[in-house]
Predict the structure.
Amino acid sequence: MKSHAKAVVIGGGVVGCSVLYHLAKAGWTDIMLIERSELTSGSSWHAAGGFHTLNGDPNVAKLQAYTVQLYREIEELSGQSCSLHLTGGVMMADTPERMDFLRLAHAKGRYLGMDTELITPSEAKAMFPLMDETNFVGAMWDPVEGHLDPSGTTHAYAKAARKLGAEIVLRNRVVELTQEVDGTWNVVTEQGAVKAEHVVNCGGLWAREIGRMVGVELPLLAMEHMYLLTEPMPEVEEFNKSTGREMIGVMDFKGEIYTRQERNGILLGTYEKACKPWSPVNTPWDFGHELLQPDIDRIAPSLEIGSKHFPGIEKAGIKQIINGPFTFALDGNPLVGPVQGLTNFWCACAVMAGFSQGGGVGLALSNWMVHGDPGFDVWGMDVARFGEWATLRYTNAKVRENYSRRFSIRFPNEELPAARPAQTTPLYDTMLANNAVMGDSWGLETPLWFAPKGTEPKDIVSFHRSNDFGPIGEEVRATREKVGVTEIANFAKYEVSGPGSEDFLNRLMTNRMPKTGRIVLTPMLNEFGRLIGDFTIAKAGEERFMIWSSSAAQKYHMRWFEKHLPKDAPGTSQVRIHRFDQTLVGLSIAGPKSRDLLQKLVDVDISTKAFRFMDFREMAVGGAPCMVNRITYTGDLGYEIWMAPAYQRLVYKAIKDAGEEFGLVDFGMRALLSMRLEKNFPTWFRELRPIYGPFEGAMDRFVKLEKNDFIGRESAAREQAEGPKLRRVSFIVDAADADVMGDEPIWAKVGGKDYGTVEKPHGYGAQRFDTDGKEVRGSRAAEGASAVRGIVDGDWRVVGWVTSGGYAHYVQESMAQGYVPAALAGDESAGLFEIEILGSRRPARINVEPPFDPSGEKMRA
Ligand SMILES: Cc1cc2nc3c(=O)[nH]c(=O)nc-3n(C[C@H](O)[C@H](O)[C@H](O)COP(=O)(O)OP(=O)(O)OC[C@H]3O[C@@H](n4cnc5c(N)ncnc54)[C@H](O)[C@@H]3O)c2cc1C
């Protein structure tokens, strides 16, 4: 074993081997993988080997599509077969709601280049005759599904990596990780130490233990998972013989079952409600190739439904039940990327679908390590997406909830209950007493809307408008016509201070920094000129800036800030960054009466002249020391008031008391989001994401290319010079009783005209597949939309996608934001666009100017 390496990958499961392969392919050959035992000594060896492309997050779905396409490549390079069976598969809907869910998934697939198709239960039965189709109302067919040999696939990655120069060390456990002052890692193993520039945690079932070696508690948990294998079945053999085809994979949401052909029999697995964590606190190091004791009682309810839905399988004898553990993060997606607070310590763990996602994870991580950026939008798998609140016990509760709901519908207005309440502000009980319906905002309880007195504060979950529609309308109207107050503790807040603070922010941000007492809005770009942040920045003092942004991005942004901090001379501190989290909370008041209200609570002049739009001031509000921004996300006259938690109740009471005479109402996050829609304001992680450039995102006025050499300037300048290909726009949609939720396709009547790509950008080029799974390259792929079934319809074409939307209550319009080719972005003609909502195409019209207060005069009043 060598004693130095550029990177050490810990763990030889499918994920570690994929990371090793991708690093070697990217040109890093001085790398080694260290495995405790043999390859596949964690979950990888007893996996059911299924793969598919669908995922709730379109960006993760894209990575899954990449993974499937990769198998041919590693087979060719390694000479090792993955035993790929590309059978295709169906998802079966047993209710109209489930069918709505499939329609949504199918609609998303239109712009992702996925070739899914909605089919009848009888069509599904023709491909899987063991089902009783009368239990279902419809299905969705996905040709890019199948199964493979997990061990063969892991070895194929490993052999391909070795061929490219990587080293693999087996039967050697990593026992300790320490870091030297210069950042070098000491990877201490049973066979001696290795010095490495980078360490990658691919420890699978032991990823938590490896995290703990560097003082990090990773939010993941292993769950027991069972599948059974039947004896050979004559019906299966008969089907294969008569059709010349293998049976397809089937996912049955009602039964929480997945099933497919395995040799001459059937494999059937469950995601049972009565799920069970495995080794909830510590994973034993001596666990190896053994299986867990099957517990048929736990999966009995699923099997009962299965026998009704798939009577053909019930008759078969059970040959074997496999019960094995594998890991999940809170939301079921992987934990990938550099860990905030550490240098060159990377994660690729909690990969619950290693054979669908392993390739994409390897590609993303290797890009990140080699080029400094994952190369595409991996927020859905970023290890930074969970905060400190994701403790061991929190993780345990959330992973169990996620596992047991794996086949459940998540409605757009559904808040999940496990591990709540976690964090609360001092106003939590007050908000409950006000009949607030609370939501989870990055681990913090936040009022969503206020149910009328005497009614139960609870969402009726639905894909359609629901019981919050009326009350949110009331909150919006009262705020727009008088004044409203809402909690805004769920924003990210930072203070950047020190003599180098202004230079530091100038280097990171696209806009000029404000003068003392003023506020600016500014995007932040990566080196490739893509949007990685959107901030409100106030200059609070000579060397002190206050910054607000998206709560969920706190670790993501801290990681970036830390990476770009100036290297101080010893004993100096040029730039200090403080993340407040919940040590600073806030309230926002908005509406035409908000100034009159605030004036009653402060002892300074806040008239238009004295306290202008976009001013920042420290002042006492209701007797409490506060910071006040003259700006609100409602786009109305309004204020954000920030205070230490100890003062929040005092300020809220003062606002409520003084507000009575002005008709003050409480409003929640949903009313706030409705009001931002009618101002065409974007949201971070919806409209603004790392797949878009600042001009695509219509952030032009916040990008000052001439100001200095900020990060991403060169690429942004190129984007501006060449003109953005895409453009963010706002639509008014002729919706019925359901509004857009995000990710719906946008159609345009463009005839034969080509407005450029309809592919959502994701960073590694368009990948398309034939129905046999082969990638379509060259001219067919270049045909763009026409290569993919379903996205051209006569003169209509899918030209873009929705990022978010909903009902804009004050202007009484259904609104959507999304991206379309830039050439279409200024065209407000009626009849040009349609947006697909729950499978029905609704007329939509671009609205260049915001429908509420287009001149901004109310906001500036
Ligand atoms: C019953 C079952 C069915 C499944 N079915 C499917 C399926 O159909 N499709 C699918 O995609 N996925 C399936 N999975 C999940 C799949 O197995 C996992 O996604 C995948 O195996 C995760 O791979 P990994 O490399 O992250 O982890 P692991 O396979 O757990 O590998 C981690 C490796 O790290 C090594 N290691 C840990 N600590 C150290 C250390 N300190 N030093 C050195 N080495 C160390 C371990 O020995 C191990 O080999 C299933 C899992 C189970 C249990």
